[in-house]
Amino acid sequence: MEGKLGFQGVRLLRVIYEKGVLQGLRLGVQFRNQANAEMTFIVVTMHTSLIDTSNQRSHYPPSKQFEKNEFIVRPNDIVIFDHYDIPLPANSTGDFVAEVRCTISYGKRSNAKYSLQLAKRGDFAIHNGVITGTIVWYDA
Questions:
Q1: Measured between alpha carbons, how far is 136 from 23 in angstroms, rounded to an integer?
Q2: Partners of 41 in the β-ladder
Q3: pLDDT per residue over 113-131, tens digit each?
Q4: Are 47 and 62 within 8 A, CB to CB?
Q5: Residues of the chain with pLDDT under 50
Q6: Inter-residue contact 87 to 96 (CB < 8 Å)
Q7: What angle do CA 132, 134, 139 make, to 5 degrees?
Q8: Domains and CATH numbers, the chain
Q9: Can you point out the beta strands (E) in the chain?
């Protein structure tokens, strides 16, 4: 029986500076097991892109894969996968959108046929290497 996994949103965990210059962002994603049964995570692959909204160019750091061997998630448990860094392009100015895509395979190791694909996007402004305004993540 396929479980139900709620994708609760994307978190900005840390802003990365080096010598006072904005270098990148550290993101995390949060899930909740909304099924009435235990779920076993197998693989979570996270792919992050940073889109320059002024010219729609994308910057794609490598995907990151988390392997959790028989990682049990009880009903209503919250799971957070974090420490994913998005490096900003050099001399970044203008507005950017950060997008996180996740693919999750779960179920028993012998029957990991369930897969969930998710995408979330969050807007924030970067001007001359400085984040300005309020950072908002869309959870809908």
A1: 19
A2: 71, 106
A3: 555 555 555 555 555 556 6
A4: no
A5: 1, 135-140
A6: no
A7: 135
A8: 5-137 (2.60.40.10)
A9: 5-18, 21-33, 39-52, 57-59, 64-73, 78-87, 95-106, 114-127, 130-137
